[in-house]
Design brief:
Distance between the termini: 80 Å
Strand order of the largest sheet: 1-2
Structural class: mainly alpha
Order of helices and strands: HHEEH
Strand content: under 5%
Shape: elongated
Helix content: 40-55%
Largest sheet: 2 strands, antiparallel
Radius of gyration: 27 Å
Amino acid sequence: MNFAPPTIDWAALTPVLIVLGAGLLGVLVAAFVPRPARRGAQVVLTALALAGALVAVVWRWTVVSVNGPAEIVGGSLIEDGPALLAQGIIALVALVGLLVIADRSECHPAGQPGRGRGAARRPQPDRGLPVRPVLRRRHAPLPRRR
């Protein structure tokens, strides 16, 4: 029984390897960077990785448009236009999602400060809303046997 190792085109796996490497670096950043600087370092690392993955997808798109579709890992993966389009869309949506999640600006609807956050807070008397005490019961009363 002879085992023939598959040929791996590492250049074709570049977008995936960039994101996986950034995930590994993100774990190391979470472990070793001090807490005050951790959030900024994670956001920058993730943004750079996703931008790098987008650049790698564009680069691979030019290669595929010239050479045509190719088998990557011994025929288990195919690199073609739809696969690269899917990778690009995923990386772009992840980058936009990162920018939305990383945004720390205050958003107050209708120009009323303080009402944008904490929608589940109890009403305060200074806002003119009635405050009712919360009745706390452990359980509903059990029916009595006859």
